[in-house]
Fold this protein.
Amino acid sequence: MYKKIIFIIVAAVSLTSCKKDPTNVAPNNELDATSYPKTVADLNSFLTPGYSNIRTASLYGQHFMPFVLSVDHTFCSQAVGNLFGTPGGGPLINNIGVNDNANGSIYSQLYQGIAYMNLCFDRIAYYQNVYGHSHDAEVATIRGQAEFLRAYYFFLLECYYGEQYIDLKQPENPNILGVPLPTVIATTYAEANLPRASAYKVWTQIITDLKASAQDLQSTTYASTDEGRVSQWAAYGLLGKAYVFTKEYDSAKVCLLKVINNGVNSLMPFNKYKNAFNGNSANEFNEESLFEINVDRQEALPGIVFGAYPANLQSLTTDQGETFAPTILSGTGLDGTGGGAANMGNNYCQYFVHDKNLARFGFKLPIYTYRTNPLYVGPGPGTAATPQLIMDSTSWAKSDSVRSNPLLGVDPRLFVCALEPWVDSCEQPYAASQPGATPATAPDTIPVGKAYIIPSNRTSYWGWSFKKYATLDNNLAAYGGNDAANLYLLRLADVYLLYAEACEATGDNPDALTYINKVHERAYGGSTAYDYLSVTSPTLANPSDVDLANNPLHYERYVELFGECGWYFDVCRWGVGANEASYYVYGTADYNPGTSTGPVNSIIDPSNWSTTNSRAYHFPIPLAEIESNPSIQRNNNPY
């Protein structure tokens, strides 16, 4: 909880030793709030935790992404229930409660980030009061980053925990609650136990911070070693997003156009885009990126979830590569994945792409059948990639053809986001894991297998693996059991679609269509042959998919940003949860129904999205916060 933060300054910085007056007996290993910081470099140290906090295990390291990414209920299915001890299936059935571990971790860690930035603001004020304004430009750069980071943390908190999205042009309604809004370091009991502010006040604070950030960073340039820091374009982009989320469309258009026309950012070409999510260092901080988290591989070191190791090691990578690791052929089962050993190294391999997502990208081929593998040589060392049964040749040919021929109606971005069994492969030093095998006698390229779940009818589902942010070039054991590419928090394609949404909302359909098509065209190598003709043109989604079938804007946000932790926000702010529930057919045999011991459907309970019960539209304030903060009442948190 935000009020649990220790208020004593304990920033992680190095202090040079110096001779001290013997009468000064203060501890020399602690920072003194009455004399620190003394330099701009000292001041910058208070900014660092605001960045590093983003990829901690409670946020993008594990709990926020990838684990609670599954609350983007159209994202995935799970092979077994309650993988992380989440009650009742947790995010996978959009039934998060006050006791959910991931929920509590996200809430408290977001407030930890806000506390870091409030401390940074406090130290900025101290520094300028003591040392004057001779370094105002450098201080403005620090302050602008802190303003963005605090706004980003509040943005995530409000999108998850605010009671509903509001129209900021309307007068404040104090009965629509947002989240607690600490903007200074708490020094009193009251400041440490804030009530929930109105949603209006929270969004106003987010916008105020982002305006200030854009202003403070307007003349800032960074060295190549600081390319991951916040820029004015990131501030304008997130500000435009906040305006769209609060229906301030005219203001949104102004901000988003600044980014679109800045002469700095552009959409990646598709040949680069399709490889921009899987750890290729040449694609990091590219021309499309506005703000991303730098993720470092840790060769031969433990990953983020191994709590016995030092925190400075745990924060370097993320759990994305492990949790959503691809399934590869391993063992001697029906399609080479028997015995539950279908793993790519040290990982869970428990999540896979929900079949109905394939149809949203236009993939409507029937589930394949099996044929005898003519290369099968029987059990033995190095034979896992030559199983007894394989995908039938007709299905393989059809799957292969839809990748090369857009006229067959499958969105090319599907193959950026997901890996198809048998047709896609991963690199793997597989021979080392086979008794008696050597690299010279076993292949390094291993086909992706069907996600393996028990119990299941293996002919009733596709079982594609995830590709976006997955590790494809090695066994995860080479990276401490965890790995991921840099994670995009804001990129230009998102800005284009937000601008299109603002245009459409203000009656400017021609400009809306232009920017929807710019994103769409990139997926087709820049060709205009597949452009939408209007903002209500049919998409590749099934006609039964009422939210996407004739809504290019919604469709493009879904397929373009799939797996980037934002679809849930779109569903909630558009109020289309009932459409999602209808499409995913909750609780029927439509898709591999789960049991208490078997696979869990990642589909949403329609009763949660009803007009009388809107619990699915926001997360509950965690119980630990309710019990420790008397200003937050249970009747404001109906879970």
User: Anything to note?
Assistant: The first strand starts at residue 76 and ends at 78. The CA atoms of residues 226 and 285 lie 11 Å apart. The mean pLDDT is 80.
